[in-house]
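Let us practice reading a record.
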Amino acid sequence: MSEMQVSTDSFDSSLIQGTLVVRLKASAMDILTDLDAISAFRDLLELADDEPGVSGYAQINDGNWNSHADVDSLSKAVSESNELHVERGHDYGYYSDLLVARFKNTIGNYLHQVMGFSMPTVAGFSGRISAEYLGITLAFDSRVATRDTTFSFDNVRTGLPASPGMTCLMPRFIGIGKTLAFANQGATINAEEALALGLVSELVEEDQDLVDVCVEYIRGLVNHDRIVLRFNREHILPSRNDLNAKLEQYYEAMSKTIVSRRAKR
């Protein structure tokens, strides 16, 4: 199972009691913008889903990754950076545009990959988490959070449109009205509020370990038929067609945002 043990600048992975546990690290933004990191992360998840010895997948964001700062930097680069991407003598336009293109495309590919898993999945949270990241993990079977976790809706502040995690998945959990209000107000909700809304499935007590709780969740499903688990996910969550439609809207919104902000320079 050495293939399951990976250490990069953006994530670490290990196999714990049959569960592939991935911890996001300070440079986790690379998973969305750097080609090598994108490939390493995608290949690991593909390998895990086909590996008989892997019973499930747990993805841990325990605050080491400051996604707010990284998205702020990406947003600022769109507005201010004039750095060009030149490769082998060819000018491919602004480098920030290339990063945004990778960012949005990788989010779409990742959502499809997670929703297509045959293995059960759980996301673990601790600390300050962006609602954008929370929205993406709504494609997981379950989410657990420590009591000090907060979720902040930052899209209005950053000036970048919400991805399908928020526009397609979140309304299924809390309704259109609450999703729209939270997004437009730039709201911040705590773990107990997220639990009451159904965005989080379980809270981790002070004497519990976040990873242990995630692993135990997977162990509770290990004897269930994977075909049934996958069927439930595919037919309860929005369909691939619904997701694809939202992805197209997201790609178009990102393009319009970039054009608009370039014009304001």
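A brief commentary: The radius of gyration is 18 Å.
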